[in-house]
Amino acid sequence: MIGLFKSMATTMKHALDGSTFTVEYPETTPEVSPRFRGVHKFSQERCIWCRQCENVCPNDTIQIVMDDQRNGEQYNLHIGQCIYCRLCEEVCPVDAILLTQNFEFTGDTKDDLAYNKEQLKNVPWYKDIDPLQSREPDRGAWIGEGEGEVDYE
Amino acid sequence: MTGTAGTVGETASVFLQSGSGQGATEGAPLADTVGRLLGFGSNMGPGETLIAAFIGAFFIGNLMLAMTGVAGPWAKRKITAAFTDRIAVNRVGPFGLLIIVADAVRLLSKELVVPDGVDRPAWDIAPILMAGSALLGFAVIPMGNGIQLADPETGLVYVFAVSSLASLGLVAAGYASNNKYSLLGGLRSIAQNIAYEIPLVITAASVVIFAGTLQLSGIVAAQTEPLVTILGVSIPAWYAFVNPFAFVLFMAANLAEVGRNPFDIPEAPTEIVAGYQTEYSSVYFVLMYLGEFLHIFLGGAIIATLFLGGPAGPVLPGIVWFIIKIWAVFLFTQWMRSAIPRVRIDQLIEIGWKGMLVLSFANLVLTAVIVGLIA
Amino acid sequence: MSLEDPQDQRGAQDRELVGVTEEGVDYDALEDLLGEKVIGRESHVNAEAFVIRPDEVQDTLFALRDEAGFDHCSCLTAQEYEDRYESIYHLKKYDDPTQEVGVVVPTSKRAPRSQTAEPVYRTADWHEREAYDLIGIDYDEHPDLRRILLPETWQGHPMGMDYNQDQPQVVTFESHTNPLAEDHKGEESDTMFINIGPHHPATHGVLHLKTVLDGEQVADVKPDIGYLHRCEEQMAQQGKYRKEIMPYPDRWDYSSAGILNEWAYARAAEDLADIDVPEYAQVVRTMSAELSRMAGHMLAVGTFALDVYGDFTAIFQYAFRDREKILNLLEDLTGQRLMFNYLRLGGLAWDLPEPREEYFDTVRDFLDELPQNVEEYHDLISSNEIFQIRCVDTGVLEPDVAKSYGATGPVARGSGIDYDLRRDDPYGYYPELDWDVITEDGCDNYARVLCRLQEVEQSARIIEQCVDLLEDWPEEDREIQSNVPRTLRPDEDAEIYRAVEAAKGELGIYIRSDGTDKPARFKIRSPCFSNLQTLPELSEGEYIPDLVASLGSLDIILGEVDR
Predict the structure, then answer these.
(1) Nearest Cα to Cα of residue C194 among C548, C553, C554
(2) Nearest-CA distance from C355 to chain B in Å?
(3) Of chain B residues 167-186, which have a CB less than 8 A from chain C?
(4) Is 0.95 exceeded by the ipTM?
(5) Which residues, in sequence order, are CB contacts of C555 under 8 Å at separation 6+?
(6) Is the separation of the CB atoms in C217 and C541 below 8 Å?
(7) For C457-503, how does the pLDDT look when each residue is reduced to its tens digit (9 = 90+)?
(8) Are C534 and C397 in contact (CB under 8 A)?
(9) Do the Cβ atoms of C535 and C221 come closer than 8 Å?
């Protein structure tokens, strides 16, 4: 019986201390860590159309269309299909694609979640956190990897 | 504080006296009150009695349904949330109270899915039987301030008789649903109810031996005298204090009777989905749910009447005390739900037949001997 | 008759085992033992392997099990080559998992038939069904050779070479098995067939238990899996070693134990391609892996309480709260709460988050609170008498049975099998740290839960030591990544089977390289897959609530069972 009373006392203790672990979500926005991987942001100005991100993407989420002169025309990313592994950001030599902390995105249909480069450019920062800055200390480890200069496959 | 407690107790007993004084008169006390209010005079004809009785029944039924309405969609969630460190409903209305309305609309506007091959009349009757049987039980409960629909001499027997009708509903729902989980739930509930109804009634019988009457107002009246007075605080002779052993037994058996942890095996969501209520949706689901909560409240009402002095209590009116006591029992069931694992069906039967039954008989014999020696 | 008399097995252990030397396994002695049966020898990266004829599988395996003590059939890998089919039995010893041997059974291309190993190791039952299902090898004398992951009506074997992935699976409605269709009462039958799952509150995912009930008691239970089959092996075979495979292991055991899964792939691939991992990275790996393990065990304990208590009980919520704290720590470290993708071949994606001191403080705060929280679980769960009568002596898994089924992890340790790859087959930084392997002798549901609760405490010990180490690590030595070629091309025909101790047990990866930058065969040995196989042993003859509790105490994650 002592065990039963212990169980009951423990739950009652939690009931009476009045503390809650959950938060009221839209009012209390959660703190996300600087490394959090949310929706992508793409910068056409920076992009050199090396297609490394398209190459490394494990499930073909990124689709790049180029013309005959190897000028970039389209940059499409299906954020509903993406598994948020951050490999595209990791391989990008010019930080043209970033994963922001923004996890609040919706769409009525699957097609709504297929973003083109304009939509990707307009993805807002979450709480004005620029992931590039917050993650900066670590990027050296990957950008200068291997020997010699970066290989553009 | 302690000085005034005595007078407070006296005030309460005055309330109680007035309540039970009305109850002692023949017939239906609440109906009489209603009749007086309507100006029917002291000698009502059969038609007038019928109208007054219906109005009284309407009042009590709605009071209980309203409490269930608060308990089901709102209080239960809030209580569980408190035990689990969460916030729970807080969006609709103040403290989320309007969720009751929202939930009612949601549930009632859902489609009533009738599965293939259900045994139609039985499947339809079961939810009504479950909700109805519990409501019937409230007819004889003295709630203080003269609120008691009827006060037959065999009141206690009547309460147990009608509340056991729910078992019929459970087993009908179980077999009529044409679902194996429902069938298992129905069988489990019938096994459980038989195993626990007997200790429940036998334990109640020990109270009857003390009080010397089956009339519920009589049982309440028997609990008014002070048991002991310590430092000016008089502790009333509630049977919970007179015979705590019987009280604990009754509480445990009652948990099984209303199917709450550790005895919630007829539903056992993680084992047999939802037992007998698996196939019910929409209005029928509401009725099932209502029935369940009404049974918890009826259980609380019986405990309050038999062991906690009915509507007795200081300062506040009797009906308020009565509702507080009912809610305390409800809170207790929710507390158990958060802390105690459910037992297995064979263990439940074992506890029922080998433990509770023996203990309740021992309690009965002991009470009889003690009462015999004193009287 | 698949299990020998326990007396005999004990006798076998007393005997001098063949092939055991100071340095490990003496493969020549084993070859002598097998004699004529061996028709060739292969050298895998992890162990030597003997090639045998497909009709001598049982003889060979019996000899290896009884004479040489290989009592753990860890995995069965089947694959198709240009000229043959092949089944590889990866054998180990529970006493010392570094002693390994492979048994390679080639079969002809035209009629791939091979003798079943089920009488030797019961675990081969499901493993061979999977091989039949995905590759298409027939196992003679197998008691129940049906498809296991794919539907019965599937056409073709999807991991075979001639399988056309674009071919539509045309299945008529009638040919689908409909469990509801035949609602009948057999003559003199007093049992009831009931489908528990695939949608049921207690199956922890989409598991289907075909259960036959005798009253409230379970007369027979057959787990039906495959509802969550996502072709993980095939996806891994289509990714390049270097990076593209790593995101997927997170999705096998998705109970936030992702880093442990990643480590399984990392360990196999690193050993295959001979990549070193810096010591600093090993410490961080160890720490993050143990955080993952704690989160996984918290979930296991919470959902087990859910199964036994019913409804969303306090314990489930408290366990979730503690898990949430761990996820916060992991989010700071890896950037996500479930699908971490944190490990890389030869290192890590990221160093510890800056400012480091702050991170260490949060970890320490969490660890300081933990003993109190664990004490609370003991108050709520293990010391509760009703919980005890529910769990003690129910779902009993005898050690011999557990070994035969290849059970590992807390399921094996709850049956008193002292088997933990972190200690027995050391990797990472575990050998340098001070911690204990938890075993419980109860063999029941209670022992398994107790085991997990205590392992949480041991994980906390490991993390604490890692934090101490990391704090004092000299700044110039914080190397998180070794030099790894941009495109990995392991040697042609190199084969490796490597396992790590994941949250649920031994998570093994078999990789065969064909000299390209993608694996030619990638096989996942999921601990849940083997552990789930013991469910009928645990629950037959018990009551339905015990079936549910046993299932909960096995702690399966369907994403890992079905892959």
Answers:
(1) C548
(2) 31
(3) 180-181, 184
(4) no
(5) C300, C303, C304, C410, C411, C448, C452, C504, C528, C531
(6) yes
(7) 899 999 999 898 888 888 888 888 888 888 888 888 888 998 998 88
(8) yes
(9) yes
Q: What is the DSSP string of B63-118?
A: HHHHHHHHIIIIIHHHHHHHHTT---S-SSSGGGTTHHHHHHHHHHTS-----TT-
Q: Does C541 touch chain B (CB under 8 A)?
A: no
Q: What CATH number matches the domain at A33-143, 3.90.1150.10, 3.40.50.150, 3.90.226.10, 3.30.70.3270?
A: 3.30.70.3270
- Tell me the three state secondary structure of residue C89: strand
Residue B76 lies in a domain: no
Could you please state the CATH topology (level 3) that the domain comprising C6-140 is classified under. Answer: Beta Polymerase; domain 2 (3.30.460)
Going A49 to A55 to A58 to A59, the CA torsion angle's sign is positive
Contact A22 B338 (CB under 8 A): no
Q: Contact C145/C138 with Cβ under 8 angstroms?
A: yes
| Preceding amide of C198 cis, omega within 30 | yes
Q: Sort out which chain B residues have CB atoms less than 8 A from A10's CB and list them.
A: 339
Residues of B in contact with C307 (CB under 8 A): 270
Does residue A133 belong to the interface with chain B, where contact is any CB pair within 8 Å?
A: no
Tell me if A1 and C385 make a contact (CB, 8 A cut-off).
yes
Please check whether residue C274 touches B, CB under 8 A: no
Average of per-residue pLDDT across B106-121: 86
With 80 as the cut, is the pLDDT of residue B299 above it? yes
Chain A residues within 8 A (CB-CB) of chain C?
Answer: 1-4, 6-7, 9-11, 14, 21, 32-37, 56-59, 83-87, 90-91, 137-138, 141-142, 145-147, 151
Of A11, A12, A24, the CB nearest to B87: A24
Residue A62: its H or E element = strand A62-66
Residue B197 falls within a domain, yes or no? yes
B101 found inside a domain: no
Whether B87 sits inside 8 A of A20 (CB atoms) is: yes
Distance from CA of B327 to the nearest CA of C (A): 21
Candidate from B86, B271, B340 with C-beta closest to C545: B271
Global model pTM greater than 0.80: yes
Cβ neighbours of B87 in A, within 8 Å: 20, 22-24
Contacts of B86 in chain C (CB under 8 A): 317
Cα B39 to Cα B49: distance, rounded to the nearest angstrom: 12
Which C residues in the span 433-492 are in contact with B, Cβ-Cβ below 8 Å?
A: none
- In sequence order, which residues have a C-beta less than 8 Å from that of residue C7 and are 6 or more positions away? none
- How many separate domains does chain B show? 1
Among A83-92, B38-47, B206-215, B288-297, the least confident range: B38-47
Residue B180 — very low, low, confident or very high, per pLDDT cuts 50/70/90? confident
Neighbours of chain A (3+ CB pairs under 8 A): B, C
Question: B325-372: per-residue pLDDT in tens?
Answer: 888 888 888 888 888 888 888 888 888 888 888 998 998 888 888 888
Would the CB atoms of C201 and B270 count as touching at under 8 Å? yes
Decide if C492 touches A, using CB distance below 8 A: no
Q: Which residue would you say has higher pLDDT here, B109 or B36? A: B109
Tell whether omega for the bond before B262 is within 30 degrees of 0, i.e. cis: yes
Coil/strand/helix, residue C44: coil
Q: How confident is the model at residue A134 (pLDDT cuts 50, 70, 90)?
A: low
CATH value of C232-239+277-344+352-482+536-558 in 3.40.50.150, 3.90.1150.10, 3.30.1370.10, 1.10.645.10: 1.10.645.10
Q: Confirm if C272 and C494 have CB atoms less than 8 A apart.
A: yes
- Nearest CA of chain C to the CA of B374: how many Å? 39
